[in-house]
Every structure is written in C-alpha cells, then in structure tokens.
Amino acid sequence: MSLRTLTVDDEPLARQLLGLLLAEHKDIQVVAECENGREAVSYLQSKPVDLLFLDVQMPQVGGFDVVEQVGLQHLPPTIFVTAYQEHAVRAFDVHAVDYLTKPVKPERLTIALERVREKIAARTALLTQEQFSAVLNGLRSPAEQSSPYLSRFLVKDGEKDILLSVEKIEWIEAAEYYCCLHTNGHRYMVRETITDLSNKLDPKLFVRIHRSSIVNLNQIREIYREGPLDGSIVLMNGKTLRMSKAGRQKLYEIGRVSS
C-alpha cells in the first residue's frame, strides 16, 4: 500500500531534498508539495493524505498554525520538520508521530517512516484529542511566554536522541556553524552558531566569556586576571578556558566577581 504524502516547506531546496530522499522508499507517494502554510491548509481540507511532512517555521502561517486550522478530524499522521532546536524539543514533548531536524538525513528519515508505518498498522498514528490540545496549547505562545530561553537541547547520542537539560552543560565551544556542548565528559554537536546560541540562553546562567566559548556560571571554580586585556577561568572539572576583556566585564556586570 502506498502512502499518499504531502510535504510542506517554504524552502525549495529543502522540499527538493526531502522529495529525493522519499523517492527511495517505494511505499511513499508524494502527491503534492506546498511552499507555505496557506497552501497546505487548502490542500489538506480538500484532498485525502496519508502522511504529512510539515515544516514548523514558515512566514505568516507556520506549521503549528496549519495544525490548528486543519483540525483534528482532518489531520493525517504528521512528521514535523524543523531547523530550530527548540521546536524539535517541543514536538518531542507532546509525543508527535515523529520529527526531523534539518538537514534531513537518510537514516533518520528511515527511522521516522518505520515509526509511522508501525503506528498506521496499529491504527494509532492519528493524534488523540489530548495530544492535539497539547500541540495547540503547549507548542504555541504560552510555552514561549513562560520562558524566552532554551531549557533543553535535543542532541544525538549514538543511534538515539536524548533531551539534555541546559543546567547540565558545563561550557559551550564554537565550531564554525555548529556548537559543541560539553557536559560530564561528553560532547554533543548542535547546528547553531555561538552568537545565535548565546542569544537563546538565559544570561543569568550562561555568559559568553570569549568569542569562541560560553560558560555555565555555576560551573566556574576560579577566575584569573592575566593583564588588562584578558584572563582565564577554571571550571569545577578542572578545565581552563580563556576569557577576553569583554567576557570579564560581563562577569563583573552580573556581580559574580569584583571590579
């Protein structure tokens, strides 16, 4: 049996890549592609679909708006697709059928499709009323209003994904367009620049002490001044990190060190 599939994404390259990956699965038939939320709502309200790949972040009508406007009775099994870490975490929280983070990887897509097939076979793929309410009430503005900062990261740990609480992160290291999260001897990569990430973390807990590093304030054991321009800090685990003059000033401003 072929699954009539609709893909929704405002990025043409993302739609093209997903289409190419889905073409490798013989039971998946992509019947249409929508480039925005309005097109998706119109299509879903007029034609039957067995499976929906839905981008979360789209202008004007986003993925969660599509969910709300289509309604539970018309919503097919849905896999959220997002480039944003926080949206993936929220989709995970409400037990969505599945989620994919961009760029979509073939092996991760295969796992998602296997989960969908299993749930369709078990007649449990459609969202229940409780789950649908969670999508609307938990993924939209109330969750965002409760805290503007990230509280968890969804990271890969071998063949599985785990939710990593920000409090467990000792420090963060820049790696070009990625960042490396350091915690308890482990390293996890996330697809965020250090500048973007620093804006998403609570400044009461995390401070960017150097252009290439962010530190958890609760993990600082010692602070050293090394001349008027820079210095260093030592973490609870003994790791030493360089600190710029601007980083030292930030620590001073939040009252963690004296002038």
UniProtKB/TrEMBL annotation:
InterPro entries attached to this UniProt entry: CheY-like_superfamily, LytR-like, LytTR_DNA-bd_dom, Sig_transdc_resp-reg_receiver
Pfam family, one: Response_reg
HTH LytTR-type domain boundaries: 153-257
Response regulatory domain sequence ranges: 4-117
PTM sites of type 4-aspartylphosphate: 55
Entries under SMART domains matching the protein: LytTR, REC
GO terms for MF: DNA binding; phosphorelay response regulator activity
Protein source organism: Paracidobacterium acidisoli
Protein name: DNA-binding response regulator
Lineage: Bacteria, Pseudomonadati, Acidobacteriota, Terriglobia, Terriglobales
Keyword Plastid set for record: no
Keywords: DNA-binding, Phosphoprotein
